[in-house]
Structure formats: structure tokens, C-alpha cells
């Protein structure tokens, strides 16, 4: 809890209007998209690096937790202030500071919304590929905290592959730059990549330099329709065997399609067991060449039909269906638990079967949405957090799911992070020695455990 | 110094033939390609992860330093055992364990030589782009320690962009896996990328999973010839403005060409002030399109001639000239100091001018070799370490060079690392707070300062 006077000190730093303490306001910042909630004691809205620094110095002096927050589209509990204290809302850092066409970089503040940034760079013929489904609301700072992915990461890599340097306020309030506009950089330890995906536990990012690439000349959207989901899953390796990396390779099963059609009908084939939604890009000639090989690969895996989007509108409609899938499924239940287990792509067919078996075993409704190209599976567990008996089954499902992903050589999270949701599994993947190495880094940089405590490390969760 | 019995303990771990202690043998492992030398007390050749683990546990117990070593092609003093102790030679870890065509990954041991690995993957139509000039001798483990780059990194990125996971023996002897075959992975802190470029100070890598990509169908080599080096430097931005990223964009000045021609003549134009050696790759059609735009960009920047290599042999000859440049220059002097300052590519023309001015100011002979596309400059300082007066000027040149690189928004090292050579500059780039953050991580993971002490951190160098 705050000692008396902390609120006054915070108001001195950011101004009295930028410290929120009313119950109504605190409730608004107590949750993200997971079932976790916890009230902060105050919400502060800094608007400069200096203010962030002063808040963290105060936090160390007074020993209160600080949880940085972007748009709260977090899917692992990462932005819930599970130990109370201060929520640091970064939305005032909302400027694209520079798009540098000569160096193919952009310098942006962490509160910039990703879709706005996409539009700004694409207007210059440039491209920033990471595209989490939350792109119309999520912020670049949040994307860095989570190491966000998205469909296009199959071809283009995730957020970490584009971040060149960060201005960061360290947990002790010191301000550093971790990198620069240069793509090559091996000066000291790679703090840039240590921070990407660290879920706001190692520093507060205040400026971001990202790499941009030329916007591909052309793209094409294809929809491959399958009577058997197993054939759809097998298509992934069949495409890669032809040495093609599509921009995206998304799998939707029938249950997901039914919910999408009920929400935003676009004519998905509800008599099919699964579809693959593919995008390819490159020069006009390259797109044509790839399209023919992709179609061949789909048909060789018994696709019943391969449709090509005939217009930009038709393509946009299919993608808007994909992006609305989470909302469509969420409409159908009280609580939606979005899993994020990831396996090597060769294991996709086996893992898809396991997911189906586990859903049946635990009597759960689990539509499947997958970035199949990179083995990143999102089983969507439709449940109700008030139903304690069902929640026990949801937990058992998750336990078996992640055990299977690790057994197949996979990982606990492809793009949503560990947060509070998966902290208990971390040692399954890294063993006690691996978790201890990570925790030693956390303690070294944040000895008072100020920044976003209760995340990633299960022993931090005790007493929460 | 060792306590009595340490040599016996080491022999118990790796076998008596795999502990070298004769003076002749110790001298062989006392240096790399920098002027630094220091004798170890023993050289050990482990051949399993368990042996590496046992050696590090012994080192912690007996408090002796361990310096991991690959092929010793290090350019920053990173593999010199500056505090004595044990050199851990990793050459026995020399197997390509798997090339997984379905997942587009390879699993290799750290002692595998890069050129051998290139051949193995290219035989399958796959591609591992990082290509440091040392590729015919350097090892993948060394590449990871240094975060190696190379010419092709302009288009394809450096070693860090290809490493997916590492089996690592931590400084305390514990063994962990940091990642997996999945490209998407945000499970806990990114220890993989913390280790890449950490110069053997945070762990000993014993297995490596790298990402592979499809081998481009076609490539083309071009040589653009300039009467003025400034025009060659300006061409970089002119090409990028056309939204083309060549595979490589290398600059050689006249002094470098003269030394190359004296060593391995290939017909470089010695009446020109500089050449750009370019490679482009992709599909046949894409290569043709790019070649025409690249030629247009070169001519718009006053290239006097643009030659296209007519055969694979002609292309290979030009590249072998480029790769032999370091040897060619080294032949001409007693001591070659290879700098590695990197600036944003927009600053390349200005930085090339500054390098020339500094060489004249300090009366030094400094041929220039540059990965110009990514602003990674290698001024080659030809000197003689026995000439103390000249070495003072070499130091003064380097001081001003790195100050200028940082002032232009660059970094201390693009691909050679900090080692002992540039430790004194680290705080210039990151400030005391940044260096302290890095050092805190080192202390957290290696409290006894066992692994490669005396590198990266200047205060570790005291008393060396």
C-alpha cells in the first residue's frame, strides 16, 4: 500500500489531472482481456521520459509496484496490476516522431496504435509487417512488451525482428538507449531483445526505432477448403516443401467458421471441416508463380476447392473475417480463454489431432484458430469463469495442451507471452535452472521488484 | 592461479590427452587476430555438454577463469584468455546434427565451420545467409559469441536473425535450452538473443538451432567503378531510394584495391578512387528487374562504369578478391587494426569523408573496406605494434573515429564485438547506467566472474 503523500508526489510529477484515483477510473484499468482483475491504487499518465523516470525513482523510494499499460489488449494477464500500486498508462506517448526513408527506419513513441502506424508507413511505400489481430487498438509499446506476432509473421518474423533500438527507463529510473538506426549492432549485450517480450518487467519503453522494409508490389489472397482438417494441417509442410513461404497461412476450423458467419457473414463454407486462408506477396510475377505452387500443394493434400480473391474488397472481406474471429467466438461465451501453444510446423497435423482429442476428453467447446504456417495454435476455450467445475476442466485441458506442445518440441507461447496465465508452466519449458537465470536477471535490474511484479515468475504470484 | 590438483581434476573430466599444458601448446591458444596475447594455464577440449558443465562447476569451486574458443578468428580480443586460467576449445563439437527440411531449421554443434555448414544446407536448396569474411575457418559457436555479420547481412540480417534456440551451459554449470524450432517464441525472457553477441561471457553454447530459408533461384554480381569515393558512398541511398535491397553492397577504396591486386590480381580498376561490389538475388525475373534499377542508381551517382559478372567464375573471382582483402592488407604491415564502426546508411558519405580526414590528421595508412549498405565501415589501420609513437596515433585515430560514429547516430561495433579492444568506449555509447545494466546481468548470471573475464567491461580490465 502507498504511504501517505505518494499520491501528492505523483501529482507533483505529472500534474494533478493526470493522476486518477476515483473508484470508477481504477476499475477501468484493473483488467485486460483475461479473466484476471486487480484494482490499482492510482493510474498515472506521464507524457515525457523524465516523468516516467521520476515515477520509477519514487516507486523505488516508496516501494510500490508500477505496471506499464498500453491498450490493454493483452491476452496473458500481463497488464493487470496484480499487486496493486500504480498503473502507468502510456497513451500520451502517441507520436510517430520520424519516418526515415533513407535509413528505412521509423522512430515512434510507445502509445502509437499499430494500425495508424501501418497507414503512415504504407503511405510512403514502406512496410512494417507485424500484425497482431489487435492491430486496430494495440500500441507499439504493448507489442514490444509482448513480442507480438500475427499472421504475416510466417514470412516476415515477429516484432523482435524489427526493433533496432529502444529508449528505456530502467526499473531504477535511469534512462538509456539500447540501440540505434543501424541494423548491425553488436555493442555490448543485446538489451533491445532482452526487453522485447519482457512484459514490462525490465523497463518502460519511451521511444522505439523500428526497421522498415519496402512494401511488396503485389499480393493475393487464397482460400483453400478441406473436407478433413487433417488434410488442411498437412498442407503446411506440403507448401514449405515447394520452398514457398506464404505471407500468411491461417487455419480456421468449422466451429470457428460457424461463429464468424453468425457474427459477420462473408460466405465461409460451413460444410467444410476446415479452411486455410493464405496470402502471398512479392512482385506481380513472383505472386503468380507462388500462387500456382500453393494451389498445387493444397490440391495435393486433398483441398476440395481453392478460391482466389478476385478483388481487393473480396480479399479485405476474408481478412476482416479472420480478424473478427476472436470477437465472434467471444460473443458465444461468458469467458473466452485463448491459448497460444506453438509447435514446430512439422508437428501441426499431430498437434491439431491432440487439440481435438483434449477438447473431447475434457468436454469443452474449443474452436480452433491457428497461424498454421509457424505452428502457432490458438485453441479458443469457450467457458464461463463462474462455473467452477468447468474451470477445473479448462485448467486440466491447458495443462495437457502445454505438456503436449513441449513434448513435440514447441513452446508455451508464440506471441501472447507468459503473464500470469502461464507462469506456472515456465519451469516445464526451461527447468528450474532456466527460470532461475531469468529471475536472476529480473532481480539484477529490478532489485525492489517494482516493475510489473507477479508476472512470468510463478513464485512472484504467491499471495496474489 | 590454479590450486594444486586442478589439472588432475580437469583430466578426470575430459581425459588426460584432452588437457594441454606444454608451453608450445599454450602459446597456440594465447592469441587471436588482435595484438592482444595472454597465456592460459591449460587448454581443455571437452566433447560433451556434460564435460563442459563439469568444467564450469569446477571453475566455480576453484575460482579459475574459463575462456571458450572456436577458431580464434576473433577481431576484438574476445577469445584471448586475458586473465589466464583455462581455454575451452570447442572444436570437438563439430557435427551438423540435423537439417530439418520440413521445419526449415538445422541443429548444429558450435565447432562446425561455417563454410562446411553453408555447403551442407545449400546442397538441399536451403540457405543460411550470415557470411563473415572468416567463413572458411570460423565456427558457428564463434559466430554466435560475436553476433557475426558479413556482406549478405545488408539484405538478410546477421547471425542473431537466424538463431532460434541454444543449448547452453550457464556459468554455474547448469544446462538449459533457451528456445526451440519454432520461429515464434515469447516464453519468458529472450535468453537466446541475450547470448548472441555476449562473447562467451554468459554461457557456453553446446547446441544451436538455426532458421534456414529457401536458397534464391538466381544471383548476379555487379561492379560499379567511381572516380570519386564520395559518389560511391552516395550510391547507397540512391539504391535504397529505389526500394531495392541488394544482397550485398561492398565498398573498396583505391588503397584496398591496390593491396588486393598485389596479392591476388583479378583486374580491379586501380585508376578509380573506389568501387562498389554488389550482389543481387531472387527469381530470374526479379534479379533482372533489380539489376536494371541498381545500374540506374549507380549511374545517377556518376559511376564511370557498371560491369556485370558474365559467369559464375567471374563472380566468384570478384568475391574471392573481396574476401582476401583483409589478408592482402595484412601482408603489407606488421600489425593490422581492423576497426568496425557503424553508422546509419544515410551518414555513409559523411563518415567516409571523416575517416579520410582522420587518417590524414594522424598520419596513418588506412585503406577502407566497407559493408556500405548497412553503414558498417572497416577502416584498416596498417601499423606496427612495436612503434610506440605510432600506436599512440592509432589510439587517437580510433578515439575520434568512434566518437564520430556515435555522434552520427551509429554504434561501436557492427559485427566484431567489444572484446578488450573497445571496452573503454562502451560507456560512450550506453552511458554509465547502460553499462551498469549490462554488468548487473553479468554479475547475476556469473557471480564468480568465471566466463571470459576481462571482456566488454572496462573495469574488468583493471590489472590485466
Topology of this structure?
The structure is a homodimer of 464-residue chains.
Chain A: H1 6-14, E1 19-20, H2 23-28, E2 42-44, H3 49-62, E3 66-69, E4 86-89, E5 96-100, E6 105-108, H4 114-122, E7 126-127, H5 140-146, H6 153-156, E8 163-169, E9 175-177, H7 191-195, E10 204-211, E11 213-214, E12 218-226, H8 229-241, E13 248-253, H9 254-263, E14 274-282, H10 284-300, E15 303-308, H11 312-323, H12 325-330, E16 335-338, H13 348-361, E17 368-371, E18 376-383, H14 388-407, H15 426-445
Parallel strand pairs in A: 2-4, 3-4
Antiparallel strand pairs in A: 1-2, 5-6, 6-10, 7-11, 8-9, 8-10, 12-14, 12-15, 13-14, 13-17, 16-18, 17-18
Helix pairs in contact in A: 1-3, 8-10, 8-13, 13-14
Q: What attributes does this structure have?
A:
homodimer, 464 residues, alpha+beta, Uridine Diphospho-n-acetylenolpyruvylglucosamine Reductase, domain 2, Uridine Diphospho-n-acetylenolpyruvylglucosamine Reductase, domain 3, Alpha-Beta Plaits, 19% strand, globular
